[in-house]
Amino acid sequence: MNLLAWLRLHTVDSDDNRWERPGPTREELRRDVLGVLVFALVSAFTLELTRGFGMVTEDSHPVWVQHLVLAGMILPLVLRRKYPVIVMLVMSTLFILLSLLSPLVSLQLSYQVAYFASLYSAVAWARDRRTLWICTTVVVVAMTLWIILGLTVANTFDGILAQYEDNPEFTGGIFEPLTSVALYNFVVNFAYFGGAILAGMSSWRNALQRTQLAEQAVLLSEQAEELARRAVVEERLRIARELHDVVAHHVSVIGVQAGAARRVIDKRPDVAVESLRTIEQASRQAVTDMRNLLGVLRSESAEPGTANDGGRRPEPGLDDLEELARQHRELGLTVSFGRVEDIPGALAEISAPLALSLFRTAQESLTNVRRHSTAGSAVMTLRTGRAGEQRWVELETVDNGMPRATSETGSGFGLQGIRERVALHRGTAEIGPRSEGGWRVRARFLLH
Questions:
Q1: Strand pairing partners for 335?
Q2: Residue burial 348-363, b: 16+ Cβ < 10 Å; e: rest
Q3: pTM above 0.85, yes or no
Q4: What share of the chain is helix, strand, coil (3-state, %, to 5)?
Q5: pLDDT per residue as tens, the chain (448 positions)
Q6: Residue 377, CB half-sphere, CA atoms under 13 Å: how many?
Q7: Which of 2, 47, 88, 371 has the fewest CB atoms inside 10 Å of its own CB, making it the most exposed?
Q8: Distances (CA, A) of 231 to 2, 24, 28, 237, 389
Q9: DSSP calls for 371-404
């Protein structure tokens, strides 16, 4: 890659150059005005100091013209950040014209510093980088021609040669006088213009990095807020599923038994008493399960058995499925429960969270059969298997009933909870009517 291609890549065609630096604030503009006024006063004072030791004695212009030349070179800096490229072009023109008008004043340090500041400000604050580099190239070429003309047309070389010839004691250096003058001017101006451009690029890049860091900080903050929001939503969904699964089962039992007791309380008081006893047990169990759930939510980070554990029971798992089937048999639903393992002991390796999801799925499925179906029996099967290299565990509940016409329309939260639990374990759920009649709930969970 040649030099021109490298410069184009890192200036005009750089992705960073598409960024536009925000303009100066009012406070920055106010500081520019005050700074330039102070600089102009200090420059006027130093001009008088140099007059004191004869530096501008040969200048034939009145004193006020000399001060006007110096002020004319400094005052445009007031707008150096608001219109950086325009100020650079204006001050480049002024630099040449005022140097022709008063060469000795142009040698003032403040004169040179003012022009340096205009170059630096253009590179540091220009928003259109392509226009900047075009204008900067024009300025550098123009100044190069100005220097060459100053050394040739203005007879600078002739003066140096004459001085060399008139002074026999002049020994010279490692180079010829003309070569030394040319190299000296090249080094000085290369450092002058190069330093201004590099300093401006450094300032511009620092501003870009500060902006990028601020944007990244905002992005990280937004991402953190989004993660926190998602965590809250997921936690709410989990709590909703647990509340539904814990409460719906017992409330359903209470509703069924209360209706049965109402119908037989006059004719068969003993059956009504048994139904009321079942309601009592179900309500107590519901309260106990609610307390257990609240204990989980309030002390999720506590270790079991610690003071924060609250004496709550372990979460239900696969070993409780038989008891669940028995409870539904007592309520009048004939439940057949079976286990099928492709590998002996495969069910014993199921993790506690997955076992809880399987239990809640079974609980919701059997509750729906009693509440919304005419079926008098259901078959529930827990099985494990393999699909290729992926192992899975599946719970299937089927019945042979029809939707009950007099049943209350469900909220759908229970089936939605089953699907959400399956999705959490990267599984699949099949819920709906069977072709041969009845209803099927099949939830397959992937094993890690």
A1: 378
A2: eebeeebbbbbbbbbb
A3: no
A4: 65, 10, 25
A5: 454 454 455 555 566 777 888 889 999 999 999 999 999 999 999 999 998 888 888 888 899 999 999 999 999 999 999 999 999 999 999 999 998 899 889 889 999 999 999 999 999 999 988 999 999 999 999 998 888 877 765 555 566 556 666 666 666 667 777 777 778 888 988 999 999 999 999 999 999 999 899 989 998 888 888 887 777 677 667 666 666 666 666 677 777 778 777 888 888 888 778 878 877 777 777 777 676 666 655 554 444 444 444 455 567 889 999 999 998 888 888 999 999 998 888 898 888 888 888 988 898 888 888 888 888 899 999 999 988 888 899 999 999 888 876 555 555 667 777 888 788 777 889 998 888 888 999 999 888 7
A6: 5
A7: 2
A8: 54, 41, 44, 10, 32
A9: HHB--SEEEEEEEEEEETTEEEEEEEEEE---B-
Residue ranges per structural domain of the chain? 14-223, 314-448
Query: Hey, what are 199's tokens?
Result: 């300093």
